[in-house]
Amino acid sequence: MIKAKDINEHTPWQDLTPGGEIYEPGTARAFNTGTWRTNTPVFHEEACKHCMLCIPFCPDSSIPVKDGKRLDFNYLHCKGCGICENVCPFKAITMVSGGVAL
Amino acid sequence: MNRVYDLKREVEKPERLTGGHRLCAGCGAGVIVAGVLRALDKEDKAVVVNATSCLEVSTFMYPYTAYMDSYIHSAFENSAATCSGVEAAYKALKRRGKLEETVKFITFAGDGGTYDIGFQSLSGAMERGHDMVYVCYDNEAYMNTGIQRSSSTPRFTRTTTTPLGSAQKGKQQHKKDLTEILVAHNIPYAAQTAPLGNFKDLHIKSHKAIYTEGPCFLNILSPCPRGWDYPMDKLAEIIKLAVDTCVWPLYEVEEGVWRLSYTPKKKLPVADYLRTQGRFRNMFQKGNEWMIEEAQQYVDQKWERLLEHTGA
After folding, report:
1. ipTM value of the model?
2. Given CB atoms, is B233 within the 8 Å cutoff of chain A?
């Protein structure tokens, strides 16, 4: 069965999955929505208290968590909406202009 | 299982809605769906059924799925019927010993697919008593097709089919109270919630809805930066104002018993909420003060009635 990552606009219809079904979970992960950003969040680790309030507010599941700590942003999916900056009580996130944090 | 809510523990679970979906930046729907699915116990599987909506076209675009669970796209009008059919098949397989694992059934639909087009199939599924949860993410208009009014759109809202002109100024009718209609179905659990603060309310209600046997309903307010015309980083602020002005009260009805989940410390004037969104701009023009007064009266009446129901 053809894998999602191998399907593109050049794939002949005979090779597509029957009924347009997808047999793997979470294939959207391979898709880059980071190019949408016009503003970019920057994570200041030293200010973060790992209260986790930003995590459920991220519409793009772009803040990874490991062992009770939030990690730096996943810029492959972050669309730069800025919700996280506003919900952070400790100013550990600031938005900068442009699609890339320099 | 009623464990104490712990945000840290909950966010440590693997996300069941992945990034890479094509919802607009700042969309409330992604936050809500991830929040509801987070309430599933780690070891349980889910079947997600989705009516045609913004959510559907952006989270399931062939060959990309943003779901870690099984997913079925159904038409606008029959997502609840689809979900109830899958649930019946699951029960039959279980009865014959052909399935071991626990699977939960969750339907997501927007207000267009719930209040309007999908209403008959929702009502039917609730009446038949399937073991499923129906979640409406309510963004108060048909956002996917270009911000047309629905029966969930509040009065005086500007949409593309209720424009501002000399004959009419925004929508003429009040918002339909769907949660109360669902309560009238005498289902085991119906609740209204929103992505607020540390997500405790949304999480606990989602967990209750998923793990209460029988048909359950959640109505969740879902701000839409494009349709509501507000800056995309203001989701949390808008939700806070919606609950503090009592425009969107948080409550639940469990086996016929009403319970208020949130009482604002200070009930704010409705204008504080309306002012944050361009869709209500018309109400702040000179000569339209009566619109704000009527909106306030309407919210006060509904709030008083809710207090009577809940005995608060």
Report:
1. 0.95
2. yes
